[in-house]
């Protein structure tokens, strides 16, 4: 999810009040393709405050250069960065980084649009979702009951029935700290071509229809 500006400021206030560090792990920052202005990072917001030094920010190149390139960069208080540098060395200076990340985010927006069209085609009335504005995943809720207020359980549907039809996604329960039942699912749109996206969601739609019928 994307935290609102108000929520970010509240978290920063708590960090000052209780004197804890914020580790801002933000690998999808450069994959933003929404139309509204992007919210500033915790690191940027803290620079506007009278007290700084509690935000250590991490960015990743694995989402904008190559999935296999496990390299990133950190931004934060000098004393923390000096401690990190004692254990790792590296330097990246690229005047074309912003231009490159713009191309990457444009690519993922096009993948998002294809996935969204397939969702509307095959899952309208069978799922509910919010259109993502960054990253490479759709987070959506399967409507497994005629009553949309009833919370279904996506685990068996996704982990068993969808897999049997050759569709891989993650049931939402794996993202919840208590592992509770949920109807939500996370699916990636980063690798599949247009035809594969359409076929995958066509199959998933049939899985949901079968689950509703039973």
Question: So what's the CATH class of the largest domain?
Answer: Alpha Beta
Structural class category: alpha+beta
Count of separate DSSP helical elements: 6
Rg over CA atoms: 20 Å
Helix content: 25-40%
Q: Give the ordered list of helices and strands.
A: HEHEEHHEEHEEH
CATH architecture heading of the largest domain: Alpha-Beta Complex
User: How many separate domains?
Assistant: 2
CATH fold category name of the largest domain: Aspartate Aminotransferase, domain 1
Largest sheet: 4 strands, antiparallel
Average pLDDT metric: 90
How far the N terminus sits from the C terminus, by CA atoms, comes to 32 Å
Family: Belongs to the class-I pyridoxal-phosphate-dependent aminotransferase family.
Protein name: Aminotransferase class I/classII large domain-containing protein
InterPro entries: Aminotransferase_I/II_large, Class-I_PLP-dep_aminotransf, PyrdxlP-dep_Trfase, PyrdxlP-dep_Trfase_major, PyrdxlP-dep_Trfase_small
Keywords: Aminotransferase, Pyridoxal phosphate, Transferase
Textual characterization of the structure:
One of its GO terms (biological process) is alpha-amino acid metabolic process. It comes from Asterophora parasitica. Residues 3-204 form the Aminotransferase class I/classII large domain. By secondary structure, the protein is an alpha+beta fold. The protein has six helices and seven strands. The strands form two sheets. Strands 4-5-7-6 form a four-stranded antiparallel sheet, covered by helices on one side. It has a three-stranded mixed sheet with strand order 1-2-3. Strand 1 (22-25), helix 2 and strand 2 (55-60) form a beta-alpha-beta unit. Helix 4 (97-123) runs parallel beside helix 6. The longest helix is centred in the middle third of the chain and has 27 residues, at 97-123. The two termini are 32 Å apart. 23% of the residues are buried. The mean pLDDT is 90.
């Amino acid at each position: 999810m994307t935290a609102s500006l108000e929520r970010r400021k509240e978290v920063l206030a708590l960090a000052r009040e209780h004197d804890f560090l914020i580790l801002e792990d933000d690998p999808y920052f450069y994959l933003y393709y929404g139309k509204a202005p992007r919210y500033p990072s915790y690191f940027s917001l803290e620079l506007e405050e009278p007290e700084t030094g509690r935000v250590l920010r991490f960015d990743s190149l694995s989402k904008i250069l190559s999935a296999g390139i496990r390299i990133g960069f950190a931004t934060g208080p000098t004393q923390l960065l000096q401690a990190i540098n004692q254990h790792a060395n590296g330097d990246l200076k690229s005047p074309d980084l912003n231009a490159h990340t713009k191309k990457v985010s444009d690519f993922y927006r096009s993948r998002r649009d294809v996935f969204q069209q397939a969702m509307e085609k095959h899952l309208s009335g069978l799922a509910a979702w919010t259109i993502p504005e960054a990253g490479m995943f759709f987070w959506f809720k399967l409507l497994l009951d005629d009553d949309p207020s009833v919370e279904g359980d996506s685990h068996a549907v996704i982990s068993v029935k969808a897999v049997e039809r050759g569709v891989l996604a993650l049931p939402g329960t794996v993202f919840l700290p208590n592992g509770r039942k949920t109807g939500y699912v996370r699916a990636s749109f980063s690798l599949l071509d247009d035809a594969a996206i359409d076929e995958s969601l066509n199959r998933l739609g049939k899985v949901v229809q079968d689950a509703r019928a039973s």
